[in-house]
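One record is set out below.
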Amino acid sequence: MEKQPIKLSDGQHRELREIAKVLTSNYQIEKVICFGALSSMTTANTCFMPPDHSTKNTYYLLVLTTETKRIEYVMQDFISSHFPGVFIIAHGVSTVMEAVYRYDRFFVDACLNGLLVYTSDGFAMTPEFVAENIEDSYLKDEEAFSRMYSMASGFLESALDCFEKGFFNNVAFLLHQSVEQACRGLIRLYTGYRADIHNIDRLLFLCECFSAEPAMLFKRHFKEDKRLFRVLAGSYTEARYRDNYEVGDQDGDKLCSLVKAFLDLTLKLSSKVPHEVTARTTVEEQAAVVDYSPAQPVSL
């Protein structure tokens, strides 16, 4: 499967311009690159109302900031309050330049194939392509996935052991660690990104840029599903710091089954990763694209 430059509709371009405008008005930003966009359409046809169509867009943005201090979580909270459905990865521009120089697969792909939404200096960041470096990077990502999946499996086995012995509070925390490691492994394998995120809701959101299945497994349509997920997601902090933290045996049992299914899914998805197709074809194809080039910023 060959990688293609991101191509968006006029409406998506307008939305991204608005998002970039809000971001640059509140933070010192060098560049904003959209490395993923998901769009879903809902059509309603009933006897009781005129036909209706609505579209929901989700955007994944790489934000390069002037300062080296990580402000990703603050920036994410801020933009989520204005534009729900926007996922942000933020790094200092010098950090990203170093990562590109090391041929970090995620940053190379984002710079070559992503849509440059905003640039403060009018220039794109276009790395030189070296096929051997990309291939080496992919092999390292495969090794990293194997380590993380092994860790995830170990956390699950420990949780099952704790469940058998009645340590239910430990069960939820260990299961959280298992899901975190599995998500990080999938993200590394599919995108090359070295995620340092502990929030599993956010990790599952990032997974959606390459597969909807991880988030779909943790169904959160009904009140009970949402409550059970909160038990799992909240255990990372609450198990350590909340004085009256307590997890019941039934919740522990359900979560064990859920996380076991998630690790099975993780292994299945790992076998579906298309073998690394480097960006060479994409770079060559860009020369043939007349009406679009990801190296050009969207005018603000």
